[in-house]
Amino acid sequence: LGHLAYDRPDLAGVPRVLTGVSWGGKLAAAYAATFPADFQAVALLYPGLYSRLQPSWWQQWRLAWAGAMGWGHVTLPIPLNEPEWFTDSPRWQDFMHRDELALMRVSIDFLRANLRLSQRIEASAATIAVPVLMMLAGRDEIIDNRRNRAWFQRLATPRKQLIEYPEARHTLEFEPDPDRFIDELIAWLRETV
C-alpha cells in the first residue's frame, strides 16, 4: 500500500483502516501483524480467523500430497454453498442462489495456503498494536466465534472493541436491519481515526 503515497498524494495524511470481511478477515489479521506500520486501525467483520469447518488430518495430508504431485492448480468445490448459512433473508438467499459471480471452487494451492495462514493467525494477535474492531454474528454457522473471541482477548492493543449481533447469521449486511451494523462501524471509525 505504500504506493498510494506516491500515486495519490491527495491521500497523504488520511488514516488507513484495514478492513477484512469473512475469510478476508484472516488475511487482514495476518497482514496487520506482518506490516503493522501500514495501518492506523483494523476492522474485522465476521472474520474467518477460525472456521467451524476444519480439514481433518487425512484431508490435510491429501492436500499436501496433491501439492507435492504438482496438482495445486486443480480446483475443488467450496463446502460453503448453503445460502441459509449466510442469511435468514429469503431475498438474499435467492440472490446467492442466482449469483453467477459467486466463488464456488478454489484450488488445492489456495487450500494449502489457507492452512499455512491459519498457523500464522495464532501468533498474530500478540503483534497487532493498532485499534481493532471485531463484529460477530451470534448465529454464525461458518465462523467459530468462541475461538475468535479468545483471539480477540489476546490482542496486544488495549484499544479494541467487540460488537456482537446475537440474532444475526454470518453476513451482517444481509440482515433485516443492516443500518445498525453499518452505523456502528462508522461510529467506531469516527472515534478511532
UniProtKB/TrEMBL annotation:
Residues 12-177 form the Serine aminopeptidase S33 domain. SUPFAM superfamilies: alpha/beta-Hydrolases. InterPro entries: AB_hydrolase_fold, Hydrolase_4, MAG_DAG_Lipase. Keywords: Hydrolase. GO terms for molecular function: hydrolase activity. Pfam families: Hydrolase_4 (PF12146). This is Alpha/beta fold hydrolase. It comes from the Bacteria.
